[in-house]
Amino acid sequence: MQCDFDIFYERKNTCCIKWDCTREVFNEDDVLPMWIADMDFRAPLEVKEAIDKRNKHGIYGYTESMPASYCEAVIDWLNKRHKWSIRKEWLCSTPGVVSALGFSVMAFTKPGGKVIIQTPVYSPFYDVIENNGRQIIENPLVLQNGRYTMDFADLESKMKSGANMMILCSPHNPVGRVWSREELSRLGELCLENNVLLVSDEIHSDITYGNYRHIPAASISEGIAQNTITCIAASKTFNIAGLSTSTVIIPDDDIRKVFTSKLHGVGIHGCNIFGIIATEAAYRYGEKWLEQLLDYLAGNLKYIIDYFKMYIPEIKVIKPEGSYLVWLDCRSLGLSSDEISDLMVHKARIGLNNGASFGTEGEGFLRMNFACPRSVLKEGMKRIRNALSFVR
């Protein structure tokens, strides 16, 4: 079945954060929202049909958190898409990847403990560390020739300073890197050498472009697998984030016991029944839909790159290798991050993520979500071009 991603679906007044909360986020109602990582596309038809079928039953009682069929779908998906063979007993379920990161911080670090992150990075990484009374240790990524790389010398130094956990973003949000096997291997070995537990957020793993392929960090070696907590979800891939369901993969028995004990300690024993149903259906039947989505997103990305090059050369596009988020380097405008955001909101009437929210290394940048119909993307690009006339 051919999917038409050009169709615009009205999302206002559907309790949609992206479209209904612009007043709270941008202090404006009339802005085009292209910020939060939420696609403006309907999930695969098979997902809707599976939910409809279960809904007809009419009883929504306590739900088995990891039914055998769900586990089988997750295992098959990871094996087929990412060449990673895992076992059912390694799986745990949580209401989301961010909550899984928070549970990991609480379970495996002590108050005041040090947790490494690679900045600029997804802002909830800061929250799950600071809000639990731990210290953030930054290992800034290095931007060279339009591409970010890891600073391994600095990373090793930070690990030796007493950190005992690192949260990896793979693929990286917001800079769009899909880490290579060599990079992941070196990082994983450093974690082992320095007794640093690796927690890998791989929620964007299914969205990659061209020859770039996501490699699960835990698939690199047996040793790295036994020292890694991997967090995945179908939410970004199939646009079902509102169903609050994610999967945590922990090969080491002792680590998994501590993690599940922490879940039970805060009262997490089950999942959203429709999240379980939707995730299983997406992994079983959504691959053709995903392949069409990736083609469409690649077309959107090409449009963005060509448009900025032709009409807005002052803003440099950091081309993403993965995710549907593009990182825009606006530093040549000579404006502060707040001034750039103000320009976009009040002149362009478009809502983008302020780069500073991803850390100090994000100053002067913007993050834009391009998972939308081409017509919406074109309107957004036109608005940015028009806004630049105020500073040229």
From the alpha carbons, calculate the radius of gyration and give it in angstroms: 21 Å
Order of helices and strands: HHEHHEHEHEEEHEHEHEHEHHHEEHEEEH
Distance from N terminus to C terminus (CA atoms, Å) equals 47 Å
Strand arrangement, major sheet? 2-10-9-8-7-3-4
Query: Roughly what percent helix?
Result: 40-55%
Number of strands: 15
Q: What is the approximate shape?
A: globular
CATH architecture descriptor text of the largest domain: 3-Layer(aba) Sandwich
The first-level CATH class name of the largest domain: Alpha Beta
Task: Label this structure with key terms.
392 residues, four-stranded antiparallel sheet, 2 domains, Aspartate Aminotransferase, domain 2, 14% strand, alpha/beta, 15 helices, Aspartate Aminotransferase, domain 1, single chain
Describe this structure in words.
With 392 residues, the chain is of the alpha/beta class. It has 2 domains: 17-44 and 287-388, Alpha-Beta Complex (Aspartate Aminotransferase, domain 1), CATH 3.90.1150; 59-285, Type I PLP-dependent aspartate aminotransferase-like (Major domain) (Aspartate Aminotransferase, domain 2), CATH 3.40.640.10. The chain is 41% helix and 14% strand. The chain contains 15 helices and 15 strands. The chain has helices spanning 17-20, 22-26, 45-55, 68-82, 97-108, 124-130, 152-160, 181-193, 222-225, 235-238, 253-265, 273-285, 287-311, 337-348, 374-388, and strands spanning 32-33, 91-94, 114-117, 135-138, 142-144, 147-149, 165-169, 197-201, 228-232, 246-249, 316-318, 325-329, 350-351, 353-354, 365-369. A 7-stranded mixed beta sheet has the order 2-10-9-8-7-3-4, with helices on both faces. It has a 4-stranded antiparallel beta sheet with strand order 11-12-15-14. Strand 7, helix 8 (181-193) and strand 8 (197-201) form a beta-alpha-beta unit. Helix 3 (45-55) packs antiparallel against helix 12 (273-285) and helix 5 runs parallel beside helix 6 (124-130). The protein is globular and about 60 Å long. The protein starts with 16 loop residues before the first helix and ends with a helix.
